[in-house]
Amino acid sequence: MKISDSDQSRLGDLYRDQLFAVLGTRGEGDPYLSLVAFSVTEDYGSIVFATKRKRLKYRNMIENPRVTLMIDNRKNRPSDFEETISVALIGDAEDVSGKSRQELAEFLLARHPGLRNFVESDDCAIVKVGIDKMYIVSDFESVVRVER
Asked: Exposed, middle or buried: residue 96 (CB in 10 Å: 0-12, 13-18, 19+)?
């Protein structure tokens, strides 16, 4: 992805400082939102998280792998209108397996070591979303669209 140096710096701060993203999925029924603990690859091309395979978000991703994730740094203050940065990431979700699963699980656990028992459980999927589009929003109305 071609991201300007200033946007790359802001995204780096956001990805480093925030631990959770809001994941949007859609299955047969209504859209569904959930929180996920995440890690973003160094090239900003993928986001990784874990979920149980029995969860609605997982079933939705299997049915429709196109997902969106939102990460922001709001603090629930009036100044958020001018100070908040958010990014909406759009891409296709994949339940990784084999050697890739182990590598991405360790990558996720390096950032979220408290998830070890969750990640190592039999029903846990490691999900990788290949990001092909992002919208970076700042100053309440400034929107930058970046595509792969």
From this structure: middle
